[in-house]
Amino acid sequence: QVQLMESGGGLVQPGGSLRLSCAASRRLYSFAVMSWYRQAPGNQRELVAESTHLPTTTYPNSVKGRFTISRDNDKNTLYLQMNNLKPEDTAVYYCAARLMQGMDVYWGQGTQVTVSS
């Protein structure tokens, strides 16, 4: 079984920064793909950053240049550095991961990010 636990969310002013963390119950090299998603009220869950084992990273245009995904293998932790935050970044942010074997996707419980003055 895989457990993922996010932390680091909170209230920040527009233009500010936050770093989200996702602590995994397995070594990060166990995962083929690790991702961050977000979901705002009334909206579908959307991908905001993806990191593969190859390694490659992917970002949608809405966050490209502002968000950075990274892995700390020693700490078994995935990060999302978010800079120049905008009110439209307000959402619950989720960590997701897929193991090297199998197609199951595991999710964390989510952490709230609110961007407001």
Task: Write the topology of this structure.
Layout: E1 4-7, E2 10-12, E3 18-24, E4 31-39, E5 46-52, E6 57-58, E7 67-72, E8 77-82, E9 91-99, E10 105-107, E11 111-115
Parallel strand pairs: 2-11
Antiparallel strand pairs: 1-3, 3-8, 4-5, 4-9, 5-6, 7-8, 9-10, 9-11
How would you sum up the global shape?
A: globular
The secondary-structure element order is EEEEEEEEEEE
How far apart are the termini? 40 Å
Strand content: over 45%
How big is the Rg? 13 Å
Largest sheet: 7 strands, mixed
Mean pLDDT score, rounded?
A: 96
Stretches with pLDDT under 50, minimum 5 residues: none
Summed up, the helix count is 0
* Helical coverage, percent range: under 10%
Number of strands: 11
Helix-and-strand structural type? mainly beta
Task: Write up this protein.
With 117 residues, this protein is an all-beta fold. Helix content is 0%, strand content 52%. Strand 7 and strand 8 form a beta hairpin. The N and C termini lie far apart (40 Å).
